[in-house]
Specification:
about 240 residues, mainly beta, 6-stranded antiparallel sheet, 4 helices, globular
Length: about 240
Amino acid sequence: MIYEIFGGSFPAAKVHLDEGEQVFTQSGAMGWADSSVDMSTNMEGGFLKSLGRMFSGTSLMFVTHTATEDDSSITFTSSFPGQILPFKIDDEHEYIAQKSAFLVADKGVNVEAVVNQNFLSGLFGGEGFVLQHFSGEGTVLAEIDGSVCEIDLEPGQSIKVESGHVALFETSVQYDVESVKGFKNIFFGGQGLFLTTLTGPGKVWLQTLTAQDIAQKLIPYLPSSGSSVSVSSGSSDD
């Protein structure tokens, strides 16, 4: 995949295709494309795999984009302020990602739902019981919310993370959840009852923003149910 990422904090990825080349994405990710790029929508991998991907935050249907001429291009836009990062996928490099991380990939990449084997991790982990698994062969472009911090964990090395800040990690990393200890920490620490524990070896990509945090900060400023907003026309009767 030949691509260029632009847009700063509101990024997009322009992918260049020659005749016959294909990429696929989830529904609604395309911003614009040359007229020489055809689009087809399908359930990649069948109904059950598509249903699993939907629960992991990806759309039920995938969209395949095919170039009918050389030097064609198609642009995919991010859904949240942050960054778009490329990841090379092969037998030695597979990744587990947060919900909705997937943006676009080569046709050789597999995007599947993966169920966390630890029930508590799925129930309280903040990113849900089902995550995204990137495997196969090719390049995938993934969305990271806010800025990114990359950490290379040594074997046995662990970090604790507020779950929504876990963007992506290599499949060699163990993902688990542990409860916050101490009465004051639980009720006044502001971190909730559980934190995600990531244990090496392997690389971890953390994100500085979460959609949940942004939503919570906006709620106090949203009109409540039944409230009305008055608009002045700027004129008055004499």
